[in-house]
Design goal:
The protein is an alpha/beta fold. It has helices at residues 15-27, 39-48, 55-73, 89-100, 114-120, 123-130; strands at residues 2-7, 30-38, 80-87, 102-109, 135-139. It has a 5-stranded parallel beta sheet with strand order 3-2-1-4-5, with helices on both faces. Helix 4 (89-100) packs parallel to helix 6. Belongs to the universal stress protein A family.
Length: 142
């Protein structure tokens, strides 16, 4: 089976990878770390590039972020597969979870006020409510 860990665009050590690695080791599963370039950012990059910014370009950039996070987080980056996706974040994460037949999905989250959640929604909340596999939410330590 597979443990899927989703990282955001910050190229720094991430507890999501650490927790994903712990789960993968405990269950003797493969760890796949994914970063999703959201549709809005993809379209902004496409507007900037005169020669065109393809989905493949976006996937390579997103995978590069995932690779950087893995290298910054674990001392065994060779044992972790990375992937980059482009699209709506929740849809892409849930789709990848299904494609990989993942046994767990590990995601990050931020503590927010009730008003903040009501006004802006939450990717973490949407994933928690929609996923067909157990989701491990790793909250910021702030």
């Amino acid at each position: 089976m597979t443990i899927l860990a989703a990282v955001d665009g910050e190229q720094k050590p991430d507890r999501v990878v650490t927790i994903g690695e712990d789960l993968a080791n405990a269950y003797d599963d493969q760890l796949v770390v994914v970063n999703v370039l959201n549709q809005k950012e993809f379209e902004e990059r496409d507007d900037v590039h005169q020669a065109g910014y393809t989905v493949e370009d976006g996937q390579k950039d997103a995978e590069s972020v995932a690779r950087s996070v893995v290298k910054a987080t674990t001392d065994r980056p060779g044992h972790v597969e990375t992937r980059g996706l482009v699209g709506e974040v929740v849809d892409e994460l849930l789709g990848e979870t299904e494609r990989l037949d993942a046994s767990y999905l590990v995601i990050g989250g931020r503590k927010r006020t009730a008003v903040g959640k009501a006004l802006f929604g939450s990717t973490t909340q949407s994933v928690l409510l929609s996923a067909d596999v157990p989701v491990v939410a790793v909250m910021d330590e702030k």
